[in-house]
## 1
Amino acid sequence: MKDDSGAPLAGVTLQIKGTTSGAVSDGDGKFKLTVPNESAVLNVTFIGYEPQEIPVAGKTEINIVLALSKKTLTDVVVVGYGSVAKRNLTSAVTTVQSKDFIQGASTRRYSKSTVKWRA
């Protein structure tokens, strides 16, 4: 799995058309997938790239090159819900409340030395 400049793509989704079976490419752009028959078709998708449908046609090795999509994302909204026990966390988590935001506009300039971060 590579982009059109030859760089490997990690995280590309491959799904056997008409099924829930699939795989995701690794850090080297490689994937391993067992297909039910030789007439299987792979749906290949990755954000920012054109999706492809690739017939397996009895091949045991498939080299896929993805082209950049001509469509652009204008907005990205991240929404998180749920809860996790603190002992199960493997990443940074913070809570932001309305009092943490600056109310109104500020004309004061900040330098790195004057900004204090709270954990």
Note: Residues 45 and 119 are 37 Å apart (CA to CA).
## 2
Amino acid sequence: MLEGVYTAMDSRPVDIVINPEDEKPQTFSKVMATVTGSWWKDRQRVETIGDVIVRPGKNTLMLRTTKNALPHIQEFRLVSKEPFFDFNPDAD
């Protein structure tokens, strides 16, 4: 699942395209459009954008807007129900 963390004083919807070079890229239209009330971090919003399919190796996330401006995006998060890989931080 893809999440976006952002702020927006004005509505600035974004289209997100995952792996735009693919024959049928995943597209999420007009996301992160909610006005959060300010540009400051204390008004950040976490928005669930949708389920994404990532492949091994390089994946590309492309942002498009028709407003000539984007919301103030702090980060995108990939959230998985399953581990992405075996990782044991306590292993030697």
Note: The mean pLDDT is 90.
## 3
Amino acid sequence: MRDTGPGMDKAQAAKALEPFYTTKGGAGLSFGLGLPYAYQVMRKHGGSLHLRSKPGVGTSVYMTFPKRSVKAVWMEGGNRNG
């Protein structure tokens, strides 16, 4: 994901994955939970989340999902239509 917002300096980016941390001011709807939640989901599933940001340029978030092999098994008496 990428945005062209104000970006973050290194100190801000280091805190960006902490719950309730936000760089947005005001009484808007920014609770600082989006990136920490995404980070925890990725960790739970064996993936990773990387953050790159530069002031005046914007922020990019890269999510890497693990490759998993799924094996289908036919079960006797199973319903193939759902």
Note: The longest strand covers residues 48-54.
## 4
Amino acid sequence: MERENNAGMIAWLLAGVALGGVGAFLLATDTGARTRRKLIESSEEGRKSILESGQDLFSKGRDLFEQGRELADDLAVVFEKSRKIAEKTIEDKY
């Protein structure tokens, strides 16, 4: 669910960057060279923002993976203890 939400946020970010660029280009009062420079700067800012978002998502994913691994290890220990208790209970009864 969170993955879909993040993908949607990235899609909206990209759409906003594209629409902003088109709007700036159409409404520009500067010369062509100045407009191109501004577009290049804006696209660079957008690229950096997307890169940072991707790095944040990767980091969060890695953290969640580690939490899952720790949980699985803890559950394996609990399962093993439960198995030993069950075996002992069966041996005691028979």
Note: The helical segments are 2-26, 32-93.
